Amino acid sequence: MQIRCLDSLPSHFPRTYHDVGQFACGQTGRVLVSAVTTLEYFGYACMQLILLWHQLEVSTHLHNT
């Protein structure tokens, strides 16, 4: 459904979050959206590492007992 909606938009409308940021606030908006997106991915990666370390700790503790 989202693809159909995007395809129905005129070609001059923004298609990505970065384009929407630039459309709304110029180059500053594009940079801000890029920074927030990068921080979001970094936070996700940190959470994955924490979960991995926790699982390794639990499995090592169970294996040693």
Summed up, what is this model?
With 65 residues, this protein is mainly alpha-helical. It has helices spanning 2-8, 17-64. The chain has one domain (2-64).
Give a verbal description of the structure.
This protein is mainly α. The chain has one domain. The protein contains two helices and no strands. The longest helix is centred in the middle third of the chain and has 48 residues. The N and C termini lie far apart (52 Å).
Could you give the topology of this structure?
Elements: H1 2-8, H2 17-64
Record field, number of beta strands: 0
Q: In the residues, how many domains can be counted?
A: 1
Mean residue pLDDT? 85
SSE string: HH
Amount of helix: over 70%
Largest sheet: none
Keywords, separated by commas or semicolons:
elongated; single chain; mainly alpha; 85% helix; 65 residues; 0% strand
